[in-house]
TrEMBL record:
It catalyses: Hydrolysis of (1->2)-alpha-D-(4-O-methyl)glucuronosyl links in the main chain of hardwood xylans. Its EC number is 3.2.1.131. PANTHER family: ALPHA-GLUCURONIDASE A. It comes from Marilutibacter spongiae. Residues 480-703 form the Glycosyl hydrolase family 67 C-terminal domain. The keyword Hydrolase applies. The active site is at residues 316, 390, 418. Residues 37-155 form the Alpha glucuronidase N-terminal domain. Pfam families: Glyco_hydro_67C, Glyco_hydro_67M, Glyco_hydro_67N. InterPro entries: A-glucoronidase_C_sf (IPR037054), GH (IPR017853), Glyco_hydro_67_aGlcAse (IPR011395), Glyco_hydro_67_aGlcAse_N (IPR005154), Glyco_hydro_67_C (IPR011099), Glyco_hydro_67_cat (IPR011100), Hex-like_dom2 (IPR029018). The lineage of its organism: Bacteria, Pseudomonadati, Pseudomonadota, Gammaproteobacteria, Lysobacterales. Residues 159-478 form the Glycosyl hydrolase family 67 catalytic domain. This is Xylan alpha-1,2-glucuronidase. The keyword NADP does not apply. It is an enzyme of class 3 (hydrolase).
Length: 727
């Protein structure tokens, strides 16, 4: 946490008072500590369908399979909370309930809908108000049990958010096949880039003890359509593939299975050496191929529905096929061939960069992968980060999207906020995800959006996927703060349907998490929708990137220089000098613009046409460059730094108006975190201005306050125990 100054001391005394007030709620506060996530099912008066003559408390639902029983359990929990009394389940009395759920094979009331349901695939569902057996009824129907469970969660969401359900007729089919959370959890319980405590998985007590939180985790994921979980860090230990740990993973798979969630494992490419005693991991060596086939057989004997492997190879020191002069495709295909008989997939990460610092690291993944298009097996997805550097507050979309039409590309978003203030900053990532997914690659003309690449529709791929680096830990809030839950929620909703609105998703989350009172929902959604842009403003405005402190990425460090690699420094990316600032990726610079489709390349290449939000990403620009606002570049930068801080102050003021309309413990907790964010946004603004002013020697615009400390003060700050740093 940033040290106190005289300017911030009073603010922190207010924060301390708020925290003490929060703690004073004691045991009574535990009911609203955030653990229930968006599945609180708080009673909110009469539900609309009760008034329309449909008895939601009278339910016909099968219970013969694990998924059917999980569906019943959720209906029991949800309807009891929302209606104030437990629902009655009909047990074969020959009459339909007011709510009928099931598949044609499991319910006689759904059977007549079989032909209509055939078009919904394995996971789709139908919600409809109709008449069954002469009775006005709400139906949740699907071809498969998992679709029914997803439909029930959708129904409960509508009830929680107060949507009028009379005349309801909804058909939902997921746009993306694999919707996966990647846990960067180590076997010792440490979470790399984790800001919510230790790992949720207690490997020590597995498989004997299956913590009830594992079921709650599965429920939360199923409620937003997430259907996969990678259990261990991409910086994988070979031990995770040992028989002992596979038995532990199998126990988690057993818990997750009734909620439609498959487990995956990050595989260390050198495991045949470390576990198998071989002298090589060369993908063309028959002994290596046999080892992976045997390992796949072993895994599927324990976990019949195992999803497959996630692999980080030849990146940041991880072993890989290039150690043996083989390509990424040869490495991925080795594992794909071992998994193929079992129906498993390989998610091969494209986050790679050369061992020696390149001229422009943004070009690396494209340079290594674009030429391999079509060389991967059919059960391989190349997993590509949303931008070409590394989960920055803002990046252009990765140029690989649209550049590999013969290869399924899997989006990788970061849900945990490694570069966006960790858990203490309120930064809603739904808008970031939406911005990326709606970006137009123009690979096949206008309208060739990233979403269409990812869902497979642009190039006709049946296999598709979206991954999110999880923000889940053992903290009672799950994610380290109440508002970071919204990023988990938004990721799941957009993974199911990338065309959804981030604002609408935020409104649903607020209504379910805090209150469906419009006087609460509207201002909180407004806060959320501007929060990411505010963070960009006070951290990395106008296309600046990677200015965080070294290693732990906590706080500003635009002065970071030296060390083992140039591209692990801030000065490598901002390139500020007396003349100007920004990384020249134009056709006269590194020519990274050429990796985009020609119409985009021309736009990005032109300093007058490139979007100002990406100006300094693609161009080195003079400090006196005239911006659209009429300000000089320097004045615009300072303006945006200050604007970001002001937005956090506005969020604080908005949140304060909701005191008494949101339960005390959570209101106090959020207020305390907003105060932290306000202080740290100011720190970002002041430290950044102090550094860049030392480079350009320019005065501040009229009315702008100078930093309260000299640059040396900010450079001297150290945070050796910041959470989440890689080890």
């Amino acid at each position: 946490m940033l040290p106190l100054t005289s300017r911030s001391g009073e603010r922190w005394r207010v924060v301390l008072a708020g925290v003490l007030a929060w703690l004073a709620f004691g045991a009574a506060a535990r009911a609203e500590d955030g653990h229930a996530l968006w599945l609180r099912y708080a009673e909110a008066g009469p539900v609309s369908l009760e008034a329309s003559g449909i008895g939601l408390g009278d339910v016909s639902a099968p219970d013969s399979t694990p998924i059917q029983r999980a569906t019943r359990d959720e209906l029991r929990r949800g309807l009891a909370g929302l209606l104030g009394s437990a629902p009655r389940f009909r047990e074969g009395d020959g009459r339909p309930g007011g709510l009928v759920v099931g598949t044609p094979d499991a319910s006689p009331w759904i059977a007549p809908m079989r032909a209509e349901l055939d078009g919904l695939g394995e996971e789709g569902y139908l919600l409809r108000e109709t008449r069954v057996g002469g009775r006005k009824t709400l139906v949740v129907a699907a071809r498969r049990d998992i679709g029914v469970l997803y439909g029930v969660f959708h129904l409960l969401r509508l009830l929680q958010t107060g949507v009028e359900l009379d005349g309801l007729d909804v058909r939902e089919v997921p746009h993306v096949k694999l919707r996966v959370l990647d846990h960067w959890d180590n076997l010792d319980g440490y979470v790399e880039r984790g800001y919510a405590g230790r790992s949720l998985w207690d490997w020590h007590t597995l498989p004997g003890w299956r913590d009830p939180r594992y079921t709650d985790y599965a429920r939360a994921n199923a409620s937003v359509g997430i259907n996969g979980s990678v259990l261990n860090n991409v910086n994988a230990e070979a031990l995770s593939l040992s028989h002992e740990y596979l038995r532990k993973a199998a126990a988690l798979a057993d818990v997750f299975r009734p909620y439609g969630i498959r487990v995956y494992l990050s595989a260390r490419f050198s495991a045949p050496i470390e576990l198998g005693g071989l002298d090589t991991a060369d993908p063309i060596d028959p002994r290596v191929q046999r080892w992976w086939r045997d390992k796949a057989d072993e895994i599927y004997a324990l976990i019949p529905d195992f999803g497959g492997f996630l692999v980080k190879a030849n990146s940041e020191g991880q072993p890989g096929p290039q150690d043996y002069a083989r390509t990424h495709a040869e490495g991925a295909n080795l594992l794909a061939d071992a998994l193929a008989p079992h129906g498993g997939v390989v998610m091969w990460r494209a986050f790679v960069y050369a061992p020696d610092a390149p001229e422009d690291r943004a070009r690396q993944a494209y340079s290594e992968f674009a030429g391999l298009d079509g060389a991967f097996r059919d059960n391989v997805l190349v997993q590509v980060k949303n931008g070409p550097i590394d989960f920055q507050p803002r990046e252009p979309f990765h140029p690989l999207f649209g550049a590999m039409p013969r290869t399924p590309l899997m989006m990788e978003f970061q849900v945990t906020k490694e570069y966006l203030g960790f858990a203490t900053h309120l930064v809603y990532l739904g808008s970031l995800y939406e911005e990326t997914l709606r970006s137009d690659t123009q690979a096949q003309g206008a309208g060739s959006t990233v979403a269409k690449v990812v869902d497979g529709s642009l190039d006709g791929h049946a296999l598709s996927g979206i991954a999110g680096v999880a923000n889940v830990g053992d903290d009672r809030t799950w994610s380290g703060s109440h508002f970071d839950q919204a990023n988990w929620y938004a990721f799941g909703r957009l993974a199911w349907n990338p065309d959804q609105s981030a604002r609408d998703i935020a409104a649903d989350w607020v209504a379910m998490t805090f209150s469906r009172d419009p006087g609460v929902v509207a201002p909180v959604v407004d806060m959320m929708m501007g929060s990411r842009e505010a963070a960009v403003d006070y951290m990395t405005p106008l296309g600046l990137h990677h200015l965080m402190a070294r290693g732990h990425h906590y706080g500003p460090g635009p002065w970071v220089d030296g060390g083992p690699r140039a591209d692990w420094t801030s000065v490598y990316y901002h390139r500020a000098d007396a003349r100007g600032i920004g990384f020249d990726r134009s056709s006269t610079g590194s020519n990274a613009v050429s990796q985009y489709a020609p119409p985009l390349a021309r736009t990005f290449d032109d300093v007058e046409q490139v979007p100002e939000a990406l100006l300094l990403w693609f161009h080195h620009v003079p400090w006196d460059h005239r911006m659209h606002s009429g300000r000089s570049l320097w004045d615009e930068m300072v303006h945006r730094y200050t604007r970001g801080v002001q937005y956090v102050e506005d969020m604080q003021a908005t949140w304060e108006t909701l005191r008494g309309r949101i339960d005390g413990p959570r209101h106090a907790h959020v207020a305390a975190f907003l105060a932290i964010q306000r202080a740290e946004a100011q720190w970002w603004r002041d430290a950044s201005i102090a550094y860049f002013q030392s480079i350009n020697g320019l005065p501040l615009p009229a009315g702008e306050m100078p930093p309260p400390h000299p640059l040396a003060y900010y450079e001297a700050l150290r945070f050796p125990h910041a959470p989440g740093d890689g080890r």
